[in-house]
Amino acid sequence: MRRAFLALLARDLRLAFRAGGGAGLGVVFFLAVVVVTPFAIGPDLALLARIGPAILWIGALLASLIGLDRLFAADAEDGALDVLAMAPLPLELVAAAKGLAHWIATGLPLVLAAPVLALLLNLAPASIGALTLTLLVGTPAITFLGLIGAAFAAVFRRGGLLVAVLVMPLTIPVLIFAVAATATALGGTVPFGTPFRILLGLSLAALVLGPVAAAAALRVARD
Amino acid sequence: MALMDLANPTRFLALSGRVLPWLSGLALATLAIGFLLAFRAPADYQQGETVKIMYIHVPFAWLAMFGYSMLAASALGILVWRHPLADVAHKAMAPIGAVFAFLCLFTGSLWGRPMWGTYWVWDARLTSMLVLLLLYLGLLALRSAIEDPNQAGRAAAVLSLVGFVNVPIVKFSVDWWNTLHQPASVFRMDGPTIHSSLLWPLLICALGFTLLMLALHMAAMRNEIHRRRLRVLEARAAAEAAYA
């Protein structure tokens, strides 16, 4: 079972990196969001430093949500999903493997790009570290919560907007605690560990809930 | 067993046809009494007459949450027992719950304007009700996006269970985030902090609105069953016309 899981993970990673588009495009979109924001609110560096973590988190959230609708779609279109559904590997683990591959291909590049983009927004070194840590812990939660939306998108061939509308409300707690943890790096009454640990808890819960719900959603069309 | 008999849509139609007029009448009577008591209740020493908004605002808030719990219960009915009536109940409840959540926010903002000086604040309780409304709207969007009614029902059921697990988490995190709204004052461990002259009209109004919601839900379920039967009849007529 572990071999099947790893094989699926490796296959999805190869597809993501060789077929092109996936990983790089998300980072470019992230960059675009971060670049247009100062045009909307003005080039005031002090203001940007204050709201920078929020801008970066919204950019990462949007980049993650927009990439979601292709997560299962290609496999649903060419029939690979039907083969996977009949395989001995439970559909929950199939969803988890695909989610993990999707996060490595699209979420991890966002985390790696964030410190560079944070410089554009004049963030202090301490907040850059805190922000990158929260992104590292929080983006898997968004991808795994998004699995259910991705499953609906693939099964019912409804793209982008529907997925974002369904998944966005579920991600609010992640956003709250991630931005709160980043804000503590600039001082405040709450230590960094408090919101950060809750964020970790939310991520762990999403790692379990997401694949189970996505598998249930994929089975809807199956019988 | 009596509950299992209700599983049959025909029996449900027969029974609900008899119950619905009484339920609607009872709802209207309870609401009439509740409103009468609410108007005779003393004005708040600080908020004046605007406190009357509470008698509709608070029941809307409770019922928006109650409606989502009903959705989760019928979602279990759909996914575990594959119950056709559970799907009807689920589909009928979603728009009603969405309207109650919207009315809660709407009356709340009308109350907030004279009391807090603004229609909207990003306070914890307002925000979690807004998120609940978003969850309702997501469910409606999902149902309308899927053509096959059977699949739409099961997909909406999965989504509403995920939402139900998330509602307490959202509530907790938003509470942590910001709080201006007064904390719960009716359901508390040490008894309600609201004075009994205001509490009784509130509870009667809440009962009235609950009966109203149940009556609306029952009527919507009857409509949905009729709509489905009509669709089957139309399909059959079209098939017969094609063969003839």
Description of the structure:
The complex is a heterodimer of chains A (223) and B (244). Helices cover 82% and strands 0% of the residues of chain A. With 223 residues, chain A is mainly α. Chain A has one domain (2-222). The radius of gyration of chain A is 18 Å and the shape is elongated. Chain B has one domain (26-39, 48-179, 198-243). Chain A binds chain B through residues 148, 152, 155-156, 158, 162, 165-166, 168-170, 172-173, 176-177, 180, 198, 202, 205, 209, 213, 216-217, 220-221, and chain B through 79, 131, 134-135, 137-138, 141-142, 145-146, 151, 154-155, 158-159, 161-163, 165-166, 169-170, 172-174, 176-177.
Descriptors:
heterodimer, A: 223 residues, mainly alpha, 10 helices, 82% helix, elongated, B: 244 residues, 7 helices, 80% helix, globular, transmembrane (chain B), cytochrome c-type biogenesis (chain B)
